[in-house]
Amino acid sequence: MASPTIAANAYANLARVLENSGAGKGSEASGQSFASLLKDAVGSVMESGRKSDAQTVAMAAGKANVMDVVTAVADTDVAVSTLVSVRDRVISAYEDIMKMPI
Description:
77% helix, 0% strand
């Protein structure tokens, strides 16, 4: 179950991505490329996974709180779910483009 903190972080990340990508600015070339945006998103998911793994190892060693581990795992779950959703939308858009007549 998503907590308000996770939702707030997701909205903040989305706002940052939209701000950095230049959404709504037309076709200006000053924003990031789509490839670098995806690379950053995947890197963010990987970092979230690493933090989750580190928290799990720390809990197994008796050095971490269970709540911290649950929060880290939930954050990773949200990040992976978001990434999978974006992947599905990109594939769907690609398939729609391929169906267009030339």
